[in-house]
Structure formats: C-alpha cells, structure tokens
Amino acid sequence: MVVENDDLVASGLVSLLREMGAVVRHFNNAEEALARKDDTCTDYFIVDYALSGKLNGFQFLKAIQQRRNKPLHAVVIAGETSTQFINNISESPWPVLHKPINFTKLALCLSSFSD
C-alpha cells in the first residue's frame, strides 16, 4: 500500500513496485486508507510523513498497527529535513527515507523485512 499525496511521487512508487511484481493500492491520505478494512492482508506500507488530512504518516502507521496481529512492514518517506524532524524520527520503529527517493534503498528496506 502506498499512501502519498504527491501524485508524481505516488506514480513513481506505484510503477516501481508493480515492476517488482507487487499488487499496489494507492491512497492520497491516511483517512482514505484507514477507511479500507482489508489492510490486514497488506504486506508492505510505503507512507509519506507529511500527508494531507488529519494524520501524518507515523500516526497512520500506528493506527494500522493497532488493527493487526502481525508485524507491520513499513517505510516512511519524507521531504522534511529539519533538525527537529530528524530528532523525532530517531525513535521511529520504521525506516525513514528522504525525498527524492532512492529506489535501490527502498527495495533494500522492503527486502529486509521478515516475519
């Protein structure tokens, strides 16, 4: 699942993931994605930190994690690089990649997950 409100970034991510053989669903914001109740079968989440709507990427992932009974395999992507943001993400349970996205790093992050 890709949750990204920038259409250009989302299009690139979706294309790359489909080329890798993934079935991909894209949502523009956390609220749209949370409205879908079938996220328990989603293997990977790639989520922008700064989403439009009420929730940021971390808040979205925490909400998803509360609904699941298995580890949450997620990568957060962010354009934010302020010192405060960097300090906040240091305790993130999910890897954070900064925009522009390096697709090789993204693929390595996804392949590193194991149940």
Span between N and C termini? 18 Å
Radius of gyration: 13 Å
Q: Structural class, from secondary structure content?
A: alpha/beta
Compute the number of strand runs: 5
CATH class category label: Alpha Beta
The helix tally amounts to 5
Mean pLDDT: 90
Shape: globular
**What low-confidence regions span 5 or more consecutive residues with pLDDT below 50?**
none
Approximately how much beta-strand content do the residues carry?
5-15%
Largest sheet: 5 strands, parallel
SSE string, helix = H, strand = E? EHEHEHEHEH
Q: Which bin fits the share of residues in helices? A: 40-55%
Overall tally of structural domains:
1
The strands making up the biggest β-sheet line up spatially as 2-1-3-4-5
Write the CATH fold name: Rossmann fold
CATH architecture: 3-Layer(aba) Sandwich
Oligomer: single chain
CATH homologous superfamily identity? Response regulator
Structure description:
There is one protein chain. With 115 residues, the protein is of the alpha/beta class. It has one domain: Response regulator (Rossmann fold), CATH 3.40.50.2300. 41% of the residues lie in helices and 14% in strands. The protein contains 5 helices and 5 strands; from the N terminus they run βαβαβαβαβα. It has helices spanning 7-19, 30-35, 57-67, 83-89, 103-112, and strands spanning 2-3, 26-27, 45-48, 74-78, 96-98. Strands 2-1-3-4-5 form a 5-stranded parallel beta sheet, with helices on both faces. Helix 3 (57-67) links the parallel strand 3 (45-48) and strand 4. It is globular, with a radius of gyration of 13 Å.
